[in-house]
Amino acid sequence: MADPRAFLSFDFDHNATSRTLFAGQATKDSPTPFTVQDWSSKTELPQSQWEAQIKTKINATNMLIVLVGKSMSTATGVAKEIAMAKSQNVPVFGVYVDGAGALNTLPDGLQRNRTLSWEWKGIANMVDQVMKEGKNKA
User: Domain limits at 49?
Assistant: First the structure.
């Protein structure tokens, strides 16, 4: 598989550590056959700058991976990023982090059946799937 580019969407206030760990494991020590290139924003930005920059970054990726923590209902930026991805035909899936699971609230636009536990084999399978969807269709 070519190295897919993934935008990592996460709750900046609650899941920044998980974003760092996920990106680091995916790019360095992952037992999966892919490399995730983390194009997410590393700092908070003014709203207008954030929207323009994030939309451009999402458009330049193959997928948006939502890191779903327990506080997703308060992460309004995550729902905006999902909407941006969908408007640009970028496939979206989620990964539960920080003890979150099937009983936790998902952000608007993320489907429960496209959200999985943080297990690299399942994530690799989902990456393979999304590389055949949306703007990635050959």
Answer: 5-136
